[in-house]
Amino acid sequence: MIQRLILLALGIGAGKLLLDIFAAADEEQEDHKHPPINHDFLINQDQEEFGFSVLKGKITRAINSIKKESKKFKIGKTGHPGKRMGSHSGFDEMFLLCSSSDEELINELESYYTAKYIDDPKNENEKVGSAGDAKTKDGQYYLYVIVQS
């Protein structure tokens, strides 16, 4: 009887372990099912600690450079770039612009940039602000622009 209980407990433990392994593999595979994510313009505000006006200047120059080469663009925020890019259809590439552990900073930047570019003919944002809260995967929140080339 005790041997059966031990075997049952081992079986349950092994089953849970396999479920965790497969769930992690599915999440990793999901991260690779999207168009490219470009880090060339990424500012890690936690490391750089630019003043807000300097940060906005750098991001504005990046957006202007990126949008110049695109047919359309959209600005947003996320805590999980791979998953977020996978949910956008009709766009070829995501450019990460700023990362921070400060969600409020990223919210403020998103509001600022969606308002700044709302009347741009290439902009696909339908409104100023955000569609909701970002849930972070790695403790960082990201401001991004996605484009169609």
Distance from N terminus to C terminus (CA atoms, Å) equals 67 Å
Tally of DSSP β-strands: 5
Helix percent band? 40-55%
The major beta sheet can be summarized as: 5 strands, mixed
Shape: globular
Structural class: alpha/beta
Our Rg estimate from Cα atoms comes to 20 Å
Order of helices and strands: HEEHHEHEHE
Tally of contiguous helical segments: 5
Strand content: 15-25%
Structural features, described:
The chain is α/β, with parallel strands linked by helices and 149 residues long. 48% of the residues lie in helices and 18% in strands. The chain is built from five helices and five strands, in the order H-E-E-H-H-E-H-E-H-E. The chain has helices spanning 2-31, 45-48, 52-68, 81-86, 103-116; strands spanning 37-38, 43-44, 72-78, 93-100, 141-148. Strands 1, 2, 3, 4 and 5 form a five-stranded mixed beta sheet that branches. The protein is globular and about 75 Å long.
Write a brief caption for the model.
The protein is an alpha/beta fold.
